[in-house]
Every structure is written in C-alpha cells, then in structure tokens.
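Reopening: structure tokens for the heme C complex, inputs below.
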Amino acid sequence: MQYHSVLKALLPYLLLSTSLMSALLQAQSLNSAVPVTYQRYCAQCHNEKIDGAPRPHNVGDWATRVEQKTDAQLLNSVKRGLGSMPAGGSCPNCSDQTLSAVIAWMKPRPGDIKQIADKPDLVKNLQRLNIPTGFQISVYADDIEEPRGMALGDDGIVYVGSRKAGKVYAVLPATEDHVERQVKVIARGLHMPHGVVFSDGDLYVAEVSQIIRFRGIDPLRGKSPAAEVVYGGMPKVNHHGWKTLHLGPDDKLYFPVGMPCNTCDYRSSQPLFGSIVRMTKDGKDVEFIAKGIRHSVGFGFHPQTGVMWFSDNGQDFMGDNLPPDEINRLSQAGLDFGFPYFYGNNIPSPGYDRPPKGVTPPVFELPAHVAPLGVHFYRGSMFPKSYRNKLLIAEHGSWNRTSKVGYRISTLNIKNEKASDYKPLINGWLQGESAWGRPVAFLELPDGSLLISDDKADVIYQLRYSPPRADPSL
Ligand code: HEC
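Re-run output (same inputs, fresh job):
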C-alpha cells in the first residue's frame, strides 16, 4: 500500500521528466542547423511573427528592412530594442559578434530579396501560401517564362526547361562578383523543352520529338556548346508531347511519351504513345518499359528500392469527379497501366471493348482533375524526420472543373508498396476560383531545401525548414 502511494506521489515528476527529456531530444535534433542563441532568445517572437517580428529567411518579412538598413543599423536595433523587442533581443549579455551572426542567419539570402523587391504583388501572394509551422518559402528565381523541369548542375547552377518560351535557363548562384542570383538563357528556339537532366558535365533536354545534349556546358565560364541529338524519331505531336526527363538509379535516361489526345487508342498502330522509355545517355538500348499511360508529367525513384513511381493525369469530360488522377508504381519493366481501356482502379472506360488482360491498377487514386505533375521522394535532412521518403506531389490544378481543385503541394506516406495519408503540405495558390500560381516540378538541393517551379507565377520557390518555437520549459 505504502509502496503504491509513493509511486503515486512520484508519478507526476516521472511524467514531467520524460516529457522534458523528449522535448530536449526533439529540440536537439531539430536544432543542428540553427544558431543556439536564436533558438533560445529570438525564436519565441520571430518564428511566430509576433508584433511583426520578421520570420527567419522569409523574403516578404525582410524585404524592406534589408533594402533600407545596413547590417550595423540592424544590429543597433537589436541592441537598443525596437517596438516590442527588448534590448539585446532579450539577451542582454550577447556580444555584438553573436548578435550579428544570428541576424546574418535570420536574413534571407541576398538573391532572394532583390529579385522581388519590385514585385509587391508577388510578395503579397507569397504570404497567402499556407505552410506548416517551421517551413519558410521564398522566391529562388523569377523572370523565367513558364519554368517546368529543373536539374542541378555543377557549381550550384540550376537548369530550367521553359516549355512555352522554347528556352532553357540557367540560374547562376550568387557569388562574390555578382551578389545576386542571375538568370541566363542558355538555349532558345527549342520545341517545348520541359525535362532537363545534368550528368557528368553534360546537359540533356527533352523536346517533343527528340532528346538533345549540350556537352561540357559551363555557363559560369561562358561555355555554351551546340546541341547534339542523342535520340530522335519520336512523334512530333504537341498534344501531351512535352516530356519529363530524369536519370534513373541505373544512370539511364527515362521519359514518358504521352497520348496525343484526350482519349484514344494507338496500342496496335503506334505503341510508342502512352509508354515510358528508358535508354542509355547515348541514346542506345532503347526499351519501352511501361504502357497504357495517358500522360505522366512526373516520376521519381524510391530512395531505398529504386522503384519508379509516376503520376498520371486522368482524362477530361467524364464530369467533375471522374476519373481519379493516379499515382502508379512500376515494380518491373513491361507493365500495362490500362489506358484507354481502364481508368482508376481498373474500371472499364466507356467506349472501349475487348480490354487487355493483366492490367496494373494505380497505387493511389487522387481526386479527379487535381492534375498531379511533378512527384519527388524527399531525401534530405533539413525537413523533419517524418518527411524522409515521403512522396511530394505538385498538383497543377484543374482547368475545366466546375469548381477548381488542386493548385497545391500534397504528400503521401510510402511504405513498401503502399501509399497512404494523403495530405496537403502547401496551398493558397488558389484563392476562391482564381489561381495566381500553379506548381509543376521539384528539385531537392544538397542542403535539403526544395525548389518548386511554378509556370503561372513564373517563379521558382525555395522551401526551407527551421524548427518551430522553442519549448517554453527549456
Ligand atoms: C519579445 C519578442 C522579440 C524577441 C525576443 C526578439 N525580437 Fe527581434 N524583433 C521583434 C519585433 C516585434 C520586431 C519588429 C519591430 C518593429 O519593426 O517595430 C523585431 C525586429 C528585429 C530585427 C529587425 C530590426 C530592424 O531594424 O528592422 C532584427 C534584426 C531582430 N529583430 C533580431 C532579433 C534577434 C537577433 C533576437 C534574439 C537575440 C531577437 N530579435 C529577439 C521581436 C522580438
């Protein structure tokens, strides 16, 4: 009995200490990239924008301050206090050096600010995006016409396909000689270049009817080689003709060939349509590894299994709620995904008799018309651990549904062969029935931040994460 009551008396302390422990552990694991001083003294206001405290790295919150104030002036504000910020930012004993380092960390990177300082509408729109606490979104590059596929080159250069403009851009990182990130056109006059891949110093670009290569490209040192055709002979049909291009874990190029229609059947006459193609970087050993796909505009390879997962856009004119858009899994070469005979979970499509056998259903049905384009397995360690190996989906949004859907980034948990827990990560590109932006594709940078292209707002965003408000008990 006595023993029992001692335990009972101790219980609250036991519970308290385990929750303290887990808070400490969590703070520790989240803290790695964040200055400790920031976490301890500044985060409580700045993570939550209390009284207008600028959020770290958030372009909109910082734009005018960084435009109008020098580093010395910013430091002075913190030392003396400003508005509801107490002197020293609540750390009276912090040295100037420490405070300056924290302020430097809090500011967005130089390239982010200047580029949009003259675009107040974009700054306002950015603030309409709903993102989970701890994430920050900023503009990585703008003034790119319809940015679509992206690839990371050497020296931190990001290559971008621009379908509408027929151009390929290079976003050059900020360096000492040019303080801001620079956007350069490196190829023009191309046929709907969407997908880009960079590998071993060469840039590969997917046009509608061919894959081309720029050998030894180096825009930082002014090297712009002529394009050579790696693989030609694909149909020159614009309808669903633009192509995503990625390198597989086997160092081969992968791209889909869309169906040239809303719905049609070319299985026997032109089996290339509706397929996914794989080949070496020299355009050899061409294989058709999947068929029966309407139009995939995004795919990725699972970081652990190497299996390809891809999005597929369902057909139009079957009403607001049919057919589902799809996330598919290509577990082995040669699978048939059923289009145009089946939609969604192998439901026979009206108007197509004599369906093929052995058709593979989608792994996950997305709502009709959300238009999943880019998909990406998150690999980095900047985002919270739960994001590792999650599938991110760029929903470009509906164009002919009675009330619009999509226009957001969503996530799926992937476990073995299953996908579940479909959730939005970022929305707000759609305001009422009018959209100011449409996400297309992803590129994860080595630091774990994520670039997202938007072909309506004509920008590339950067999504970062730093830990949310410190636990007050710390
Ligand atoms: C109690 C809340 C609070 C704390 C703690 C706090 N700040 Fe602030 N901070 C603010 C607010 C509010 C503003 C905006 C003030 C304004 O513009 O009127 C601000 C503004 C700033 C600015 C911009 C100054 C300017 O001249 O525009 C910097 C830089 C800054 N804080 C850094 C820090 C640092 C570094 C710390 C931690 C050492 C810190 N803050 C702690 C609330 C806080």
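Residues 37, 41-42, 44-46, 50-53, 65, 69, 74, 77-78, 82-86, 89-91, 94, 99, 102-103 surround heme C (CB under 6 Å). The domain at 28-112 is CATH 1.10.760.10 (Cytochrome Bc1 Complex; Chain D, domain 2). Marking as resolved unless the reporter disagrees.
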